[in-house]
Amino acid sequence: MTDYAILLMVELTRDREMLSAHALAERIHVEVPTASKVLKLLTGSGLLDSFRGANGGYRVSKRASEISVAEVIAAIEGPIAMTECSVEEGLCSQEDNCGLRGNWQRISLAVAEALSDVSLAEMSMPLSRKPDPLQIMTLNTE
């Protein structure tokens, strides 16, 4: 669902026009009920405005450059976290026997920050070349 949410949001930010769930589903090649479910979640999170009626549809509430991938993910899945314990204490049955919570929180924070640094405007632009995983790892250790 999160993948579809990113696709839908990028599609809606291209021209900032209002589109129906049906039109959006066709554009990203998913079933209308799937698109509708994702659009409802995105609307509930405030990322989209919805308009009823024959000429109704969905429109982004902000410019693409103002919406991060992290916001879209959080709208669909909730807080970005690698493990349950990195979000809230008491959710993991292993919590009393495990000393990794602080490290999981650190990792979750790094992932959330990285996703917050990528806007939908950036997602809509094709990369000039395929990213090199080794280069990415090197950049992260500097």
Can you walk me through this structure?
The protein is mainly α. Helices cover 51% and strands 6% of the residues. The protein folds into 2 domains: 2-60, Winged helix-like DNA-binding domain superfamily/Winged helix DNA-binding domain (Arc Repressor Mutant, subunit A, Orthogonal Bundle); 64-126, no CATH class. The chain has a two-stranded antiparallel sheet with strand order 1-2. Helix 1 crosses helix 4 (69-77). The model has no long low-confidence stretch (mean pLDDT 87).
DSSP strand (E) fraction?
A: 5-15%
| Low-confidence spans | none
Query: Which structural class is indicated by helix and strand composition?
Result: mainly alpha
How do the strands line up in the largest sheet?
1-2
Give me the Rg, rounded: 18 Å
Tell me the count of domains. Answer: 2
Please write out the topology.
Blueprint: H1 2-15, H2 21-28, H3 32-44, E1 48-51, E2 57-60, H4 69-77, H5 101-116, H6 120-123, H7 133-141
Antiparallel strand pairs: 1-2
Helix pairs in contact: 1-2, 1-3, 1-4, 2-3
What labels describe this entry?
Arc Repressor Mutant, subunit A, globular, two-stranded antiparallel ribbon, 2 domains, mainly alpha, 7 helices, 2 strands, 142 residues, single chain
Give a quick precis of the structure.
The chain is mainly α and 142 residues long.
